[in-house]
Amino acid sequence: MDRQQLADFLRTRREALQPEDVGLARGPRRRTHGLRREEVAALSGMSTDYYARLEQERGPQPSEQMLAAIARGLRLDLDERDHLFQLAGHNAPARALRTDHISPGLMRVLDRLADTPAQVIGGVGETLIQTPPAVALLGDQTSFTGMRRSTPYRWFTDPTSRRIYPEEDHDIHSRNYAADLRRALAREGSGSQADRIVHALLEESPEFAERWARHEVARRHGEKRMQHPELGILTLHCQLLLDEEQAQTLLVFTARPGTDDHDKLALLSVIGTQQLASSSAHESSARA
């Protein structure tokens, strides 16, 4: 681990970022050149003290998980991410097609959608990052581990994952998720995570096995009906922005202006990540 070079690299990358680059307001009295340490720490999901010690050539060797979070917070591209890992004494992550590292371009778009439900999805349907309104609309989808990170896997193995959609729409979602995995398997090949998920679902879910046998690859796009515990049914448009290099997709949920759904989305941006009373009660009854 090269503490001096690591500290210097973090400092120069932090100073190269402006508040507007990460969706923050500059403010009239700002004097700092680039971002503040506490801002990078918040963007990376860690304490200011921990991040500051890295820039001050102090503290323990950061783990690969912490380095990945810093790379995301500093909006590093893949070359810069690899350099960060190497300075910290780790091997650079393999540049497989499927990666959790989000491109700076997608992150810049997401930074400007703070008041809109939006999230970045990986190649097998794993949610990598969400805006607060997306968490309020869909729940936190970033904390799952193992195969459960994959939304299609949860859809066919965990009935509670279907509560965000009206029951009469479940059939089309089952069709879409099976098609998503079919395309992911064709893209990633034998032995990939997509392959492992497909084989697990063929053993665990008769519904998935029946869908898989149809060999459907067409996906129905357009409007989605979402079922929120406080706001009721919302009919939303799902816009997609694809990063083909990393097989990641930015999903943005919008509603037609002048409609009740548009007003509900505006309220959702105010709600943010608050736990609504009825939602908490619903979760408690589900666990009982």
Automatic annotation (TrEMBL):
What the entry lists under Gene3D superfamilies is as follows: 3.30.450.180, lambda repressor-like DNA-binding domains
Entries under PROSITE patterns matching the protein: HTH_CROC1
According to the entry, every stretch annotated as the HTH cro/C1-type domain falls at: 33-81
CDD domains membership: HTH_XRE
| InterPro entries, alphabetized | Cro/C1-type_HTH, Lambda_DNA-bd_dom_sf, MLTR_LBD
Q: Which GO MF terms does the UniProt record name?
A: DNA binding
PANTHER family given for it? BLL4672 PROTEIN (PTHR35010:SF2), BLL4672 PROTEIN-RELATED (PTHR35010)
Name of this chain's protein? HTH cro/C1-type domain-containing protein
